[in-house]
Known about the structure:
By secondary structure, this protein is α/β, with parallel strands linked by helices.
Amino acid sequence: MPPKSILARCAIFLTAMSASSLSNNLPAAPVFVPVLPSNTVPNGPAIPTTPATESAHPASIPLWPEGAPGSEARKDEPEQISYRQEADIVFPIVFNIQNPSITPFLPAKDKATGCAVIIAPGGGHMFHTIDREGYDVARWLADRGIAAFVLKYRLARDAANMASGKPQPYRTEKEPRADALRAVRLIRSRAAEWGLNPDHIGILGFSAGGVPAFAAALLFDAGNPAATDPVERQSSRADFHAMIYAELPRGDYEVPKNAPPGFLLAAYDDSPKAAPLANYLLKLKTAGIPAELHIYTHGGHGFGVRGDRPNLPISSWPFRFEEWLGDIGMLKK
């Protein structure tokens, strides 16, 4: 845990950051909090003595202007950021998501394909692994002409609540799914503004982010044409979905005949995720839904995009995803 002198410097740093954000009429930076014991491991890499920060990114856009249904009273609570220490890496994590949002990474117009990917980071429903399963992926896609929107969905086991001992306010089967469906509708409603093809909007979920991705792929609806909110008139069906070592429902479930194409990927040494994804492929095939599955020998769980492991074949997975998008016609302007 950082010493008190470091925490004091963090407070000064955060005050300056918040003032800067407000002066530019941008969302305030997440508030740094000390590392929770649950986010440390014995003999792990050293935790930085400087406060955790998100990497540079565009301003986020709330999914609902007045706050998410059921969370309106908490929409102005600041997000929180800290570190998570694992056996071979330390990385920033974001939590206390009370006002779900998307952060747009739009490609240069001369590169734009019209395709968009919503990215749902993982984090066990406790936090968002915001860089290597969020902003880093989004930048990679935008560099290749694919618009990317990082989704900060509400967390059913939010680390902020775990630290305080308060009851959890959200459920995995409700709020993350609602946030994903709203994200698809919102992006589709603004497709013309962002230079997107409204029929080329998909979603990618890492680990726990598989829950919102699954919703947009299998639990969608056509929208409500009578809604006063124009966003709610849009379909919440994703046009494709990618499940990267993603969480899937336990027990049996059915795949609708109009589910979108799927891209599935995991490491063989991540058996809790590899086997369910293989079973999911069979369900998609039975329903007649085009799908592609990649199981790499090594990689473990939570790799996202990691530049520190270039020799592992699994590190090339984003290129396979890009190829698949082209194969299913999503990169045609």
